[in-house]
Design brief:
With about 700 residues, this protein is an alpha/beta fold. The protein has an 8-stranded mixed sheet, sandwiched between helices. The protein has a 6-stranded mixed sheet with strand order 1-2-3-4-6-9, sandwiched between helices. A 3-stranded mixed sheet has the order 5-7-8. α16 links the parallel β13 and β14. α19 packs antiparallel against α25. The radius of gyration is 29 Å and the shape is globular. The structure holds nicotinamide-adenine-dinucleotide.
């Protein structure tokens, strides 16, 4: 079957894309469309041409898998195809439904007219991959909907709805009813009226006070998209549309595109794009593994996490029962949920009736027999093995056959929890991140006995819940927190040696983290880590660590909630203010352990924190805890505020070159607590072979 089909309806030829599911503009499609276009041009009985997408949408744009392969350059290239459309002596009408994205929209912009179905979305989302539209999109869109709107659409990558663009040259007519029929009628009409072949290239891209407009846009964008190179280049491209003749503007756009393709940031963003798809694949669990349908859920414990998790189910349309030990705790949890939803309503992010519907899906429960019919129970009680075992024994007795028994534990052994039941194959970890209803990451922890069916169901459920599910094996901290501990350990050692919390945070924020480790710790509550450390130290007596965080906690400085932590906070404010008392505490500690402080530079701060992550990540790979390096990267992008344009800790190490990473680690192994820099054999091996994790 051809990648595009051709049919003639009276005097109108229709070319229909046939490259499911997204009609990406892969070479076979481009070639077929080019052939059909010629046929229509050559046929004297054809007066006008309609271009339409078969299936769900017009086109999702370029086939990203062709990037960097000869197929991208094979004739006709997208740019050649667009030029051919524009040069057609017969009017070409693009008929858009679903969405026209990226190259798909650029192709439509090369047509003389565009019609669209209600609800169709038109977008140039290249910026999300660190790129900009490279086939005339910036030049034509600026001419079609005005510079201000075009800039907003190109810099954000967000779609423009067909309805809102109707009446501009972007959408000439909104079609009600059958799109092909409507488009054919429209094409017939313009041919009959002898309307000119309107080319967007011939229009003017105009904006008042261009100098001020672009200067302000640059200022705003530099702040909003710190670290991302593409948005600023989008401004350059749109400015070229205003200031240069069309052909010059297109050249300028092309140059900017080529510059961006080569940036590490764009490579990282593409890694993230593919990574999010890759993590769904589990090598030993085939895609056709049967999954169970989850029609109802139960959550045990209505504390911070339990109430958030209940909201996650309710938001996804799944009825959920929330079980607590007593009425008081239950009411507290339900009140927190109501308050959270009401906040969203007050901010205009949620409609009142939607809040009501969501709340109605959450029902209280005080006894296990009330939840027995749920397809999954997610336990979120205290982080205490004894309590967890009791809860799982109760779940085992109460839950119907086939139910999944999940734990939200952050640090406890999922296999030991599973052993408290008679059905360890039904037990799995679903590690949500706080706030559960906001954070996208879900670590799906596969126990030694978890069945493939249960694992596949949990991964599918993650998607239903709007989460990015990443599989982790069982170990202390799983993928995310285990690596975080390695990162924080170095951050703390840097304090021992001479840095202050604000310097460490600043260096890592400059690297791209939304917040540095000490500001994060103050936000999350320093007491949480304190409790975990106590347990870990009992388990690993020789483990080297800085006592500074403990000293901070011993003063009751638990972070924002107590008004002080590694920083101090003014009442009602979340802004960290460096605190001389903390500096004094750190200096006292240095004296006590006999350290003469030295100046610690930003480069060292970033390298030590980041390379410690990559090294721990390598161990996690060796142990089979993570399936692939990309899984580790996705955990960090979706759950830990790692800058997306750096691609994740493993990708970042790859992009520096593992040989360089190794050399730096060897240097640090001669410094303070050098024993922490024992190189993971996998990292050493890959570096020696000039290979990468990803
Ligand atoms: N807080 C976080 O950031 C976070 C993040 C990820 C995972 N976790 C994990 O989630 C779990 C819950 O953490 P949290 O912060 O929500 O704790 P929390 O103390 O806020 O809530 C625990 C709730 O469980 C209830 N509970 C205790 N025993 C119970 C029982 N036998 N039956 C029913 N309810 C019971 C308590 O009344 C309380 O409301 C822990 O395992 C924790 O490690 C926490």
């Amino acid at each position: 079957m051809s990648a595009a089909e051709y049919s003639v309806r009276g005097a109108v030829a229709a070319i229909s894309f046939n490259n499911p599911p997204m009609n990406t503009l892969a070479h076979p499609l481009r070639a077929a469309v080019r052939g059909h276009l010629q046929k229509a041009i050559d046929d004297p009985a054809v007066a006008a041409i309609v271009l339409i997408g078969g299936g769900r949408a017009f086109s999702a744009g370029a086939e990203i898998r062709e990037f960097g392969t000869p197929a991208t350059l094979a004739s006709p290239t997208l740019r050649e195809l667009i030029a051919a459309m524009e040069a057609s002596p017969k009017p070409v009408v693009a008929a858009i439904h679903g969405f026209a994205m990226g190259g798909g929209l650029e192709l439509a912009l090369g047509c003389h007219y565009r019609v669209a179905s209600r609800g169709a979305r038109l977008a140039l989302p290249e910026v999300k991959l660190g790129l900009l539209p490279g086939a005339g999109g910036t030049q034509r869109l600026s001419r079609a909907i005005g510079v201000e709107r075009a800039l907003q659409a190109i810099v954000s990558g967000d779609p423009v709805k067909a309805e809102t663009a109707t009446g501009t040259p972007l959408v000439d007519e909104l079609i009600e009813g059958d799109l092909l029929e409507g488009a054919v009628a429209f094409a017939r009409k313009i041919a009959a009226e002898g309307r000119p072949l309107r080319k967007l290239r011939d229009l003017q891209a105009e904006v008042d006070n261009a100098d001020t407009f672009f200067a302000e846009a640059r200022k705003r964008i530099a702040k909003e998209y710190r670290g991302y190179p593409a948005p600023a280049k989008c401004v350059d491209a749109v400015e070229a549309a205003v200031r240069l003749p069309f052909d010059e503007g297109v050249k300028s756009e092309r140059r900017l595109f080529e510059e961006l393709v080569a940036t590490p940031e764009s490579k990282a963003l593409r890694h993230a794009f593919f990574g999010e798809r890759a993590v769904a694949k589990i090598p030993d669990v085939p895609e056709d593994t049967p999954t169970r349908e989850i029609r109802g859920a139960a959550v045990i414990g209505a504390g911070t996490m339990g109430s958030g998790i209940a909201m996650v189910f309710a938001n996804a349309g799944i009825p959920v029962k929330l079980l607590e030990m007593n009425r008081g705790a239950l009411d507290k949890g339900l009140a927190a949920i109501r308050k959270n939803y009401a906040g969203s309503v007050a901010r205009g992010r949620l409609a009142q009736d939607e809040m009501d519907r969501r709340l109605a899906r959450i029902s209280p429960a005080l006894a296990y027999e009330d939840i027995r019919d749920a397809g999954i129970a997610v336990e979120a009680v205290f982080e205490d093995m004894r309590v967890k075992k009791e809860v799982f024994a109760s779940l085992d007795r109460a839950m119907k056959k086939g139910a999944i028994l999940a734990t939200n534990t952050s640090t406890l052994d999922v296999d030991e929890i599973a052993a408290a039941t008679s059905r360890p194959e039904a037990v799995i970890g679903t590690h949500f991140f706080s706030p559960a209803n906001v954070m996208r990451l879900l670590e799906v922890v596969r126990g030694a006995k978890t069945s493939k069916e249960v694992l596949a169901t949990a991964m599918k459920l993650a998607k239903t819940l709007g989460k990015l599910g990443v599989v982790s094996g069982v170990c202390d901290g799983f993928i995310g927190n285990r690596i975080l501990n390695a990162y924080k350990r170095q951050a703390n050692f840097l304090l021992d040696e001479g840095a202050l919390p604000q310097a460490v945070d600043k260096a890592l924020e400059d690297f791209g983290f939304a917040m540095g480790p000490f500001a994060v710790s103050d936000l999350a509550g320093n007491d949480i880590g304190w409790a975990v450390r106590k347990r870990q130290r009992a388990a690993q007596p020789g483990f080297a660590y800085s006592r500074i965080p403990d000293r901070i906690c011993e003063l009751g400085r638990f972070g924002q909630k107590t008004g002080a932590g590694f920083y101090r906070y003014e009442p009602g404010s979340r802004t960290p203010i460096p605190d001389p008392a903390v500096q004094e505490l750190i200096e006292d500690y240095r004296n006590e352990i006999g350290i003469r402080p030295r100046a610690v530079g930003d480069k060292e701060i970033v390298e030590r924190c980041l390379f410690a992550m990559a090294n721990e990540g390598a161990r996690i790979l060796e142990e089979g805890i993570a399936l692939r390096a990309v899984d580790i990267d996705m955990v960090y992008l979706a759950g830990y505020g790692f800058p997306r344009y750096r691609g994740g800790p493993m990708f970042h190490a790859d992009s520096l070159g593992l040989r360089n990473v190794l050399a730096a680690m060897e240097k640090y192994s001669n410094g303070y607590h050098g024993e922490c820099w024992r190189v993971a054999p996998l990292l050493a091996k890959l570096a020696a072979q000039d290979k990468t994790f990803n």
